[in-house]
Specification:
Blueprint lengths: L7 H16 L13 E4 L14 E5 L2 E2 L2 E5 L2 E5 L3 H17 L22 E6 L2 E6 L1 H6 L1
Antiparallel strand pairs: 1-2, 2-3, 4-5, 6-7
Helix pairs in contact: 1-2
């Protein structure tokens, strides 16, 4: 029977659509997710810098703000504290407007060292990528 029942497909489709609506018009000057060019840094290219990301959306000369999601947890990031706060506000407002939940208790203040996400955090040191587990997650295991 095909009725108005929730399904994983519909939930994922709605979440992806919501992320697109949050990002909005990339050419709008007032949009915190605005970007106008892409900087490519591929291995083998002249001027390749292994310390930089391969592909970055840029807003002028600085990286553009963006958001990432893990299941239903969304994190915002940007080149400045103001951009991060504006991005978080926009995401929260649009999510609520569309009738979806936005857990304000999960909101974190902008930080260059945000801490663990889902119980683990990453660090790049000595040319390697390290994954650490928080004490709280370790005690639950």
């Amino acid at each position: 029977f095909m009725g108005f029942r929730s399904s994983p497909y519909n939930a994922a489709k709605l979440f992806g659509w919501t992320m697109d609506v949050i990002r909005g018009d990339r050419f709008d000057v007032n949009n915190p997710y605005r970007w106008n060019k892409v900087r490519c840094n591929y291995p083998g290219a002249s001027g390749y810098d292994p310390a930089k990301a391969w592909v970055v959306k840029m807003n002028g000369d600085v990286p553009a703000g963006d958001l990432e999601a893990y299941c239903d947890d969304v994190r915002h990031w940007g080149p400045s504290e103001i951009t991060c706060r504006r991005a978080g506000r926009r995401a929260s407002q649009i999510t609520q407007y569309l009738g979806q939940q936005d857990a304000a208790r999960k909101t974190r203040h902008p930080s260059k060292v945000p801490g663990p996400w889902c119980g683990s955090f990453f660090s790049a040191a000595d040319g390697c990528l390290w994954v650490y587990v928080s004490d709280e997650k370790w005690k639950k295991a």
